[in-house]
Design goal:
- The complex is a heterodimer.
- Chain A is an alpha/beta fold.
- Chain A is built from 6 helices and 13 strands.
- Chain A has a 9-stranded mixed sheet with strand order 9-8-7-10-6-1-4-5-11, with helices on both faces. Chain A has a two-stranded antiparallel ribbon with strand order 2-3.
- In chain A, helix 2 (about 70-80) packs across helix 5 (about 190-195) and helix 3 packs across helix 4 (about 125-135).
- Chain A is globular and about 65 Å long.
- The relative contact order of chain A is 0.18.
- In chain B, the strands form 3 sheets. Chain B has a 7-stranded parallel sheet with strand order 5-9-4-1-2-3-10, sandwiched between helices. A 5-stranded parallel sheet of chain B has the order 13-12-14-15-16.
- In chain B, helix 5 runs parallel beside helix 8.
- Classes of the chains: A alpha/beta, B alpha/beta.
- Chains A and B meet through helix 3, helix 4, strand 7, strand 8 and strand 9 of A and helix 3, helix 4, strand 5, strand 7 and strand 8 of B.
- The structure holds flavin-adenine dinucleotide (FAD) and adenosine monophosphate.
- Adenosine monophosphate (AMP) binds near residues 6 and 126 of chain A.
Chain lengths: ~250, ~325
């Protein structure tokens, strides 16, 4: 089966994000950018499905600026086969991303789309579910295990109380959670090889998707700062302080 | 203006997250209704009717809703949506799974994890693991949102809403429930626990978690963990607190052998009192801790247990 994996370029998870003084957003200049960590997990899962003989081709797709091509190259270096770059400098909301991905799916006819559970910049956790709704496909969100079972897909999901396993008709959308796998690093030869893998250049207009935001950002502010407290020397002192604070006993 | 709050429940009991979502819905203004979709869930409907501020409870009792599968539940909500200006779901894993599906079917951009209702169309929500707070105004006719339950107090009881049975919507029939493996525990669940003690990679093994459980039992606390502790298999996935796990804000949070990565802080930094036990005095967790104990946890935790015993706990 063909697997489609959407990947997003985001601020690296190790960067301490700073809010701009004019409250228009966060500081993006000279900040390290990387593939959204959940998308690395999705790419890895697709590669494992291919290595197991279940997947035949892995197509990665990104919606974003010129530099988002680097993110596609990273996925290609990990082992994806080809890329689609839907180029735009606009901030694209999850609903519009889902609409673009729906159109891409219409052209590519994948049997499985593995989306990240959450982009660590907007923390929306919606694109995969929206895409699945727009396609009329079933969804297996927050997946920690994915297994093809005949013409169906078994997905084990991380839920509030533990784990749940569901069975989906194919084609389907899965969103990857942290325990699905541990992504590999691309080897140097594979990074070299990835430079020759094809990337299709597209624009949102090619898919006739209206990118007009539905949510207008009025401001972005810093959260209330928490003051560091005091150090205690012993467990006895700690218990005394907690009693004093009225949180125990 | 009428809002529909989707109830979080397990068919037997109404989850407290629902009353918190009601508070957010009340803040939008206008009437509040609750939808209970489940199987054999009459008692949940009765409980929902007692939440103050709720006018009507709709109960869709049908086998297809027993496990909160996204496709049928979303179809049901969409079939009701015409009567509502807002749809509010607590940001539980069910809320996160189902709400975006509803939003897309209605061509609405969802507001995720709302932490404050500024006005009927303007909301605050955290981004970048809570390192920034975004204020957004929605231009969609309907507002569809998940709400972060730690940001809203539970609506009280004393309500007497009417309860109306409604019929099921058509099941898309493209997915099927297979099985569940739920973590069994007599301790309070993390979302509602007043005290939480969490362990990280410093715990070294799942075999050492009983050290924390003993303290939890003395304090009536829930037990949580960092991602590293879950990834290493010390404890099940539903223990994970953080940006991509559970968000909690208890009266007291005790972090043991946890370094304090921003992804972990995102899930607990709104706790009232934070305690950190860590042998590295440079660990970032101390920057948010009210009380820090620089010590080897394998000495400090048993000592803490003993000291709690001395005050009769
Ligand atoms: C996409 C993404 C999402 C993530 N989501 C989450 C999330 O939701 N929640 C989360 O927690 N993390 C999350 N993380 C992971 C996060 O970045 C950190 O890796 C993780 O929180 C570290 O866990 P830890 O503090 O237990 O381990 P470490 O950072 O390894 O810290 C262990 C600590 O234990 C201390 N220690 C060791 N031995 C002892 C001892 N004997 N006595 C006392 N102290 C001791 C050490 O000094 C150290 O400070 C996420 C990461 C990514 C990339
Ligand atoms: N601009 C984008 N390009 C490609 N994929 C995206 C984009 N935005 C979101 N996604 C996918 O949707 C997932 C969830 O994002 P979000 O709903 O924004 O939290 C990400 O992990 C990606 O897989």
């Amino acid at each position: 089966m063909k697997v489609l994996v959407p990947v997003k370029r985001v601020i690296d998870y190790n960067v301490k994000v700073r809010v701009k003084a004019d409250q228009s957003g966060v500081e993006l200049a000279n900040v390290k950018m990387s593939m959204n960590p959940f998308d690395e997990i999705s790419v890895e899962e697709a590669i494992r499905l291919k290595e197991a003989g279940t997947a035949t081709e892995i197509v990665v797709v990104t919606v974003g600026p010129q530099q988002a091509q680097e993110t596609l190259r990273t996925a290609l270096a990990m082992g994806a086969d080809r890329g689609i770059h839907v180029k735009t400098d606009a901030e694209v909301e999850p609903l519009a991303v889902a609409k673009i991905l729906k159109a891409v799916a219409g052209e590519e006819s994948p049997e499985l789309i593995i989306v990240g559970k959450q982009a660590i910049d907007d923390d929306s956790n919606q694109t995969g579910q929206m895409l699945s709704a727009l396609l009329g496909w079933p969804q297996g969100t927050f997946a920690s295990k994915v297994e093809k079972d005949g013409d169906k897909l078994n997905v084990t999901r991380e839920i509030d109380g533990g784990l749940q396993t569901i069975k989906l008709n194919l084609p389907a959308v899965v969103t990857s959670d942290l325990r699905l796998n541990e992504p590999r690093y691309a080897s140097l030869p594979n990074i070299m090889k990835a430079k020759k893998k094809p990337i299709d250049a597209k624009t949102p207009e090619d898919y006739s998707v209206d990118l007009t935001p539905r949510l207008q950002v009025q401001k972005v502010t810093e959260p209330a700062e928490r003051q560091a407290g005091i150090k205690v020397e012993t467990a006895a002192e700690l218990v005394a302080k907690l009693k004093e604070a009225g949180v125990i006993g | 203006m009428t809002s529909l709050v989707i109830a979080e429940h397990d068919n037997a009991e109404l989850n407290d997250a629902t009353a918190k979502a009601v508070t957010a819905a009340v803040a939008l203004g206008g009437d509040v209704n609750i939808l209970v979709a489940g199987e054999g869930c009459a008692a949940v409907g009765e409980a929902a009717a007692k939440i103050a501020g709720v006018a009507k409870v709709l109960v869709a009792d049908d086998a297809q809703y027993g496990k909160q599968m996204a496709e049928p539940v979303a179809a049901l909500i969409v079939s009701l949506a015409g009567d509502y200006d807002a749809i509010v779901y607590p940001a539980t894993t069910n809320g996160k799974n189902i709400t975006p599906r509803v939003a897309a079917l209605l061509d609405v951009m969802q507001l995720s994890e709302v932490t404050a209702v500024v006005s009927a169309d303007t909301f605050e929500r955290p981004i970048y693991a809570g390192n920034a707070i975004q204020t957004v105004k929605s231009s969609d006719a309907k507002k569809i949102m998940t709400v972060r339950t730690t940001a809203f107090a539970a609506a009280g009881d004393g309500g007497s809403a009417t309860v109306e049975a409604i019929s099921a919507a058509e099941n898309p029939g493209i997915s099927e429930y297979v099985s569940e493996e739920l973590t069994k525990s007599d301790r309070p669940e993390l979302a509602s626990a007043k005290i939480i003690i969490s362990g990280g990679r410093g715990m070294q093994s799942g075999d050492n978690f009983p050290m924390l459980e003993k303290i939890a039992d003395k304090l009536g606390a829930g037990v949580g963990a960092s991602r590293a502790a879950v990834d290493a298999g010390f404890v099940p996935n539903d223990y994970q607190i953080g940006q991509t796990g559970k968000v909690v804000a208890p009266e007291l949070y005790i972090a043991v052998g946890i370094s304090g990565a921003i992804q972990h802080l995102a899930g607990m930094k709104d706790s009232k009192v934070i305690v950190a036990i860590n042998k590295d005095e440079e660990a970032p967790i101390f920057q948010v801790a009210d009380f820090g104990l620089v010590a080897d946890l394998f000495n400090a935790v048993p000592e803490l247990e003993e000291e709690l015993g001395k005050i009769g706990l």
